[in-house]
Specification:
The chain has twelve helices and eight strands. By secondary structure, it is an alpha+beta fold. An eight-stranded antiparallel beta sheet has the order 4-3-2-1-5-6-7-8, covered by helices on one side. Helix 1 packs across helix 10, helix 4 (128-138) packs across helix 5 (142-167) and helix 5 (142-167) packs across helix 12. 28% of the residues are buried.
């Protein structure tokens, strides 16, 4: 009896694995290829900058103040505003990177620090690695594409889990999972099956980890994760004392009665990119009013940042609104080295500092995992692991496709038939429900697939009766 139940369950799991594989294969290849490319963003960006720097004047004379460099960039885009300034990672770097926003859309400029000449400019979203990232995260289809990516990533997790179940040797040593016997079984399809199973066994665990730590970026899972943290009281830094992100009114008594506080995506509370720039809400206090007090210049803010020795790359964001704050943020690949400091726009006083240790343990753990997903946790070795994992995903996709193509009847899909015993053990039902709760988008699509499958089966039965 136990053997019969196991055989029925294996048959059902094979059916699920088959449908999920056909759906996921093209998307898995896209995500693997773009992910592998994006792993090398630091090297690619450094090469681009090196080519631009080769055209810059040597740093032999006085370096222009940061405000003059920004003005030189804005001169080419009347009406534009500074979005952020990325400081040179090396003091000998002859250019500075300036991001501006205007009617023409976001632009990134490289400005010669000695002459103020704009050496290169490009659309920020159009930068190659940003383009690759948008394919990887949204398939170039915005929020809808992001949902598709989340669905496919969720089903890739299920594919690996079900694949391990199907591949696990029964009646043989466990290590045969990793080293199967080749040369046994009928035809080449059996060889492809063993290559497919062995590949999944070797890289499945790493791919599962990479997929899991990609979930914080997703819409449904990521939002649910944040809500769950809120429910158990795991707050991000600044959520309870966000009011400190307001510059003081230099002409007022600093009372709080007419201050407006709003959640700001750019507070530095995030350890991985979440949300969209269009969702940002500026944090403002009362109007500065008329008077002789002038806001700090950009160069003065950079002078404040100099003694800190922030880990590169370092971004400086200007105040948003009439009385916002200056923000200096290290965006180092190593999450523990990241730090964000907010300064009063009038006095330069430090208003808020967020370091890695200020975050709750869950966010710190997830941030390290996100860095692993990006290939940034332990240098080139992390990148090598990422490349092996992405090549493994491509191998699984190709071999899975070949297996299906070889076994399918001519002119038909070759769907594994429904098992004769359609009952499911209680434990299996509980496992399915748990998986659907953990991966909600997979749960939604699974429910839709079950409804469609049921309708097709009912239609087939009606046609047989009619015949």
């Amino acid at each position: 009896m136990a053997s019969a139940v196991r055989t029925t369950l294996q048959h059902r799991v094979w059916r699920w694995h088959f449908f999920a594989g056909l759906m996921v294969i093209p998307f898995a290849v896209i995500l693997a290829v773009t992910g592998a490319i994006y792993l090398f963003k630091p090297q690619f960006d450094a090469a681009v900058e090196a080519r631009i720097n080769a055209r810059a004047a040597p740093l032999a004379g006085d370096i222009l103040p940061a405000d003059a460099l920004v003005e030189a960039g804005l001169a080419a885009y009347p009406g534009g505003k500074l979005a952020k300034l990325t400081l040179p990672s090396d003091g000998a770097d002859p250019t500075v990177e300036v991001d501006i926003r205007g009617e023409a859309g976001p632009r990134t400029l490289w400005v010669d620090r000695t002459t103020g000449e704009v050496l290169h400019k490009t659309s920020t979203p159009g930068r190659f690695m940003n383009f690759v990232k948008r394919i990887h995260g949204t398939l170039l289809a915005g929020d809808r594409g992001s949902l598709v990516v989340e669905i496919m990533a969720s089903w890739m997790i299920i594919l690996i889990v079900t694949g391990v179940y199907l591949w696990w040797p029964r009646g043989a040593a466990w290590w045969r999972v990793f080293v199967p016997k080749f040369g046994e079984g009928p035809g080449r399809r059996e060889t492809w099956r063993k290559v497919h199973g062995m590949g999944g066994a070797w890289i499945g665990g790493v791919v599962l980890v990479i997929l899991f730590f990609g979930l914080p970026w997703t819409q449904v899972w990521g939002d649910g994760f944040n809500r769950a943290k809120d429910l158990v009281g795991l707050k991000a830094p600044g959520q309870e004392w966000l009011v400190t992100l307001e510059s003081g009114n230099p002409h007022a008594d600093h009372s709080m009665h007419d201050m407006h506080a709003g959640m700001d995506h750019g507070t530095g509370a995030e350890l991985w990119d979440q949300g969209k720039a269009s969702d940002e809400v500026g944090v403002q206090s009362a109007s500065a009013g008329a008077g002789a007090v002038a806001p700090l210049s950009l160069q003065a803010v950079l002078d404040l940042a100099a003694p800190e020795r922030y880990a590169a790359p370092v971004e400086v964001q200007p105040p948003r609104g009439e009385n916002g704050v200056w923000t200096i943020r290290s965006m180092a690949a190593s999450r523990p080295d990241r730090i964000t400091v907010h300064h009063d726009r009038w006095t330069g006083a430090e208003l808020m500092r967020v370091e890695f240790t200020d975050h709750n343990p869950v966010d710190r753990f997830m941030a390290l995992g996100v860095a692993f997903h990006e290939g940034a946790l332990f240098g080139w070795l992390n990148q090598a692991v990422g490349v092996i994992a992405t090549l493994g995903v491509i191998l699984l996709s190709v071999t899975g496709g070949i297996m299906w193509w070889r076994r399918r009847p001519k002119g038909r899909l070759g769907t594994p038939p429904m098992p004769a015993d359609k009952r499911l053990a209680v434990g299996v039902v509980v496992l399915i429900l748990a998986l659907c709760l953990f991966l909600p988008m997979a749960g939604v699509t699974l429910l839709a697939a079950l409804v469609i499958d049921g309708l097709i089966s009912a239609g087939n039965r009606l046609r047989r009766k009619a015949a």
